[in-house]
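Journal club side-thread
Mid-discussion, someone asked how the predicted structure for our own chain would compare to the paper's figures. Pasting it here so we can look after the session.
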Amino acid sequence: MVTSRLAAQGLRTALVERELIGGECSYWACIPSKTLLRPGEVRSEAERGFGTATPELGWSEVAKYRDYMIRGLDDSSEVKSYEESGVSVFKGEGALAGPGAVRVGERRLETERVIVATGSDPVIPPIDGLARAGYWTNREATTFSEPPESVIILGGGPVGIELAQLMHRFGAEVHLIEAAERLLAREDERVGELVLEALRDEGIDVRLGAEASSVSAGDGRRTVHAAGEPVSARELVVAVGRRPRTEALGLDTVGIEPGPHGIEVDERCRAGERIWAIGDVTGVMAFTHVAKYQGRLVCWDIAGESVRADYGAVPRVVFSDPEVAVVGMSEAQAREAGVELARQHIVLGEAIARPYTYERDPRGEMQLLADRRRSVLVGAWGVGPLASEWIHFAALAIKAQIPVAVLKDTVPQFPTYAEAYQYALEALEL
């Protein structure tokens, strides 16, 4: 996206890529995982609906479509498209080679500007026996040829939750192990509780407060030793987080010392003189939509526009079933920041009609956080069908600091999940 924008701005542009153009999200993360999640969602919707038969999941067709979505792990069409638009594509390991220079293998490229967008790598915890036993990361877990018969997933964050539900719905016996005492530990406690209920209701074994101490392997299975009884499965997936990819980039040749969370950037995503960094490598927020936002900022900055990054209203979504969507501050963060809070929590099925037209035994809850002194929203979360879509009302409200009085005066479509905002806003005591 950044490359195309810069080329469209009339700049002579080169793209250096060591693997596949499009990166992690396009081939081994967001796109394949959401593609694989969708068939299970369809079946769940049919089961929870009314007057519908439960469809069968056809793995061969799902895998075929997944491979189509990730282009068969082949970026040749992307390379051709870029080159036809005037972008020079260089395949290989790229590294800075002093001010205004990038080295790709034995080739040296001279340039006025450099944008670093190297992404991140999965964190592999130092668990005794893990390397010997073997494991999957998100890459193997989104490109497998056949669903595993059983799997252990280390990590109760977004990736672990999505993979647990995905694999379970394709027939795997799933064990999810999380060292913390709750899922999605960075969000409000109720969010994790709702996800835990959903996973356990499906038959997924979730173990909390169970930090893995060692891993062993034998007879084609891996065994994880943690609090309680050891658990064994055919495959083991490590999904405990990611770290910025800053090694071997030649940052020292331009005087940049990466911090513990990646390459530090300013509000314009500048990392140094005529050097910008975007995406996971900056350690700001490891989301594709944040990388795309930072990419737009850089293009505008290069074009001479006045820009300033603002991450206060970035949605955070888990594409589980039901979906989880969060934006702004958590309750703990708001109190720590000294916000005088007004809080309103609602059960969707008790407030609006849409959940009952969507499914039997409707699910879903919502919470809004407002600053009493300023009468604006500072945080919101929703757990329910399509939450990733209706969270954007709150995101815009927080971003633009729209007064609660104005939000109350909007007219939501009936019947929709977004209508829940009206009820929650009216119940806020400011």
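Post-session note: The chain has a mean pLDDT of 97.
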